[in-house]
Amino acid sequence: MQLRIAVLPGDGVGPEVTEQAVRVLREVAGTHHHTFHFEEHAVGGAAIKQFRTPLPRATLDACLASDAVLLGAIGSPEFDHLPPPEKPEAGLLLLRKSLGGFANLRPIISYPALAAASPLRREIIDGADLLFVRELLGGLYFGEPRGITSQNGNSTAFNTMRYSVAEIERVARVAFEAAIGRGRKVTSVDKANVLETSQLWRKTVTGIAADYPTVALDHLYVDAAAMHIIMNPRRFDVILTENLFGDILSDEAAVIAGSLGMLASGTVGGAVDLYEPVHGSAPDIAGSNTANPLGAIASAAMLLRHTAKLEDEAAEVEAAIQSVLAGGHRTRDIAEGLLGQFVSTAEMGQLVTEAVAEFADMRYAYHAV
User: Fold this and answer.
1) Where a domain ends, among 193, 228, 257?
2) What is the pLDDT of residues 55-68, one digit of tens each?
3) Are 278 and 106 in contact (CB under 8 A)?
4) Which of 191, 212, 273, 333 is catalytic?
5) Residue 316's domain spans which residues?
6) What SS3 class is residue 161?
7) pTM for this one?
8) Strand pairing partners for 135?
9) Are 16 and 72 part of one and the same domain?
């Protein structure tokens, strides 16, 4: 397998966690005789400092010429004074739009070793394994018109929630295809009792379901979904929803995994897929070598699965993460209240890398027999 990966470390803890994800990918390439080409470029606040823009043309061109993009994190308070189009986050939005990915995949897994790190009771989260499929290029975040007006000293702000049938159909198909390889159930989340966009959403998703007779479909209002995610997360397999609802619900579901630092994500469907951990730049701990790299490493596993179609290699990385956690190794965000050994960002990356090598050796030994 030849794979070209654009690496965008970004801001805050982004460079630290991305380094460990690349470290694991290099191990995968070495043990399985693949060739992965990594090309690093600046984005976000780091790019503003170097090039006075959050998304330099050279960075975007490199991303568009790659098979996949691995992003660390974007954002820093030191740029809060800038107007919105010049902030680091504007670079991320432009990158996503340019790459064209319309479906954000965000798995939420309850690892047995981290059950005590969740504020939810063990009997609620044990066995929970959800996948959010969030529409990423529509809804309130991108709908027009939008803005702030002022008249006679009275300001008014407005945003537009807008969806077309085509936008809903394409992300719905991603959810149903994902469900075929999982528990064969899709829960579509909307607010069809209030919003016309949700009424169209529900009607369109129901129509797409007819093409997937082996996948069960149910619908939930977003407020009910928020409750069930906390009360009974095991009832879900794939959760399909629009941009705003998906943003909120998937962050809420982080409590199932015990920490935002555990969460990976992938954005697919466009010219080039984008993979990034969910946790953000965490500038308060940047440079301290304490950030959790497992979200970034799990994002690398998603890259192997969805872009490279290397299912065995992706499974080995995920098994390595579980093995290291089961061995009692913890970064600071998942250490409180749990027994185990505290490790740094780099140490956690090294442990996962070593576990990947061990799983690869075991697989080769099995096939040799």
Assistant:
1) 257
2) 999 999 999 999 99
3) yes
4) 191
5) 1-113+258-369
6) coil
7) 0.92
8) 103
9) yes
